[in-house]
């Protein structure tokens, strides 16, 4: 009889035998060839490997990820857009994905005078 982990195979035909009873004196009969196989106590196989044993492009990119502070995320671009409140020709703008991924993002406009406006694109 061959044992791989908790699987027990017939020594004559290689058929998978029924589960072990845990009793070393028990006999397991093969349903295919009829061979009588001695039962064994199931063995648990534990293996460990280092993450470096399996190279991964994703794991390599994870080390290249940068952490952004709140100040880094608050960058705004300038667009030529008239402010409806003060008439200034330039406004700051930024985009955020507030809705689901298959819908457009929300554009936030801000003027130095304090006027704020949003637009869904």
TrEMBL record:
Binding site for Zn(2+) 1: 10, 13, 30, 33
InterPro entries tied to this protein: DNA-dir_RNA_pol-M_15_CS, Rpa12/Rpb9/Rpc10/TFS, Zn_ribbon_RPA12_C, Znf_TFIIS
Keyword presence, Zinc-finger: yes
GO cellular component: RNA polymerase I complex
A single GO molecular function term of this UniProt record: zinc ion binding
Residues that, per the record, bind Zn(2+) 2: 83, 86, 111, 113
Protein name as it appears in the record: DNA-directed RNA polymerase subunit
């Amino acid at each position: 009889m061959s044992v791989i982990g908790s699987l027990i195979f017939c020594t004559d035909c290689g058929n998978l035998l029924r589960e072990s009873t845990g009793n070393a004196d028990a006999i397991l009969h093969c349903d295919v060839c009829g061979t009588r196989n001695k039962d064994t106590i199931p063995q648990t196989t534990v293996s460990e490997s280092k993450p470096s044993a399996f190279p991964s492009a994703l794991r390599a990119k994870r080390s290249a990820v940068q952490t952004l502070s709140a100040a880094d995320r608050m960058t705004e671009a300038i667009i030529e857009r008239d402010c409806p409140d003060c008439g200034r020709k330039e406004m700051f703008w930024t985009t955020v994905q507030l809705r689901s991924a298959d819908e457009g993002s929300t554009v936030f406009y801000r003027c130095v005078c304090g006027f704020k406006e949003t637009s869904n694109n």
